[in-house]
Write a structure and sequence with these properties.
alpha+beta, 4-stranded mixed β-sheet, binds zinc ion, 35% strand, 2 helices, single chain
């Protein structure tokens, strides 16, 4: 039996990597439909990554973009900051975007990704 495609299911973007750079920098992300991509929400993905759901301001089409899980280097950076007694920032969003406690994890609210364990 053929799988029916959910018409409301978010679409994929083919230049995710480039868009993510803009996203981390807090810049506007151009949608393939001519508008801008606005974040609707983040949901937990698999293996520590997260999925951002974006809506195009011009077409109202929805797109999903995977925000990759923390790398070993990013986790180390966060741990080093904590060992120094600092409140760690998001390694991707940079200075001023604090990680917040979510259960036992330290999470960036803009990435939806856990970068470390709360101490
Ligand atoms: Zn972040």
């Amino acid at each position: 039996m053929a799988k029916k495609r959910d018409p409301k299911a978010p679409l994929k973007l083919d230049n995710e990597k480039q868009l993510l750079k803009h996203y981390y920098a807090g810049q506007r992300m151009e949608s393939p439909m001519g508008g801008y991509l606005m974040l609707l929400g983040l949901r937990q993905g698999e293996d520590g990554d997260s999925v951002g759901i974006f809506e195009c301001s011009a077409s109202s089409l929805r797109y999903a973009m995977v925000i990759p899980a923390a790398t070993r280097g990013e986790r180390k950076k966060v741990k080093d900051a904590m060992d120094d007694g600092d409140d760690p920032d998001c390694p991707r969003h940079g200075h001023g975007t604090r990680l917040v406690r979510a259960g036992r994890d330290l999470v960036c609210m803009a990435c939806g990704v856990a970068y470390g364990k709360a101490q």
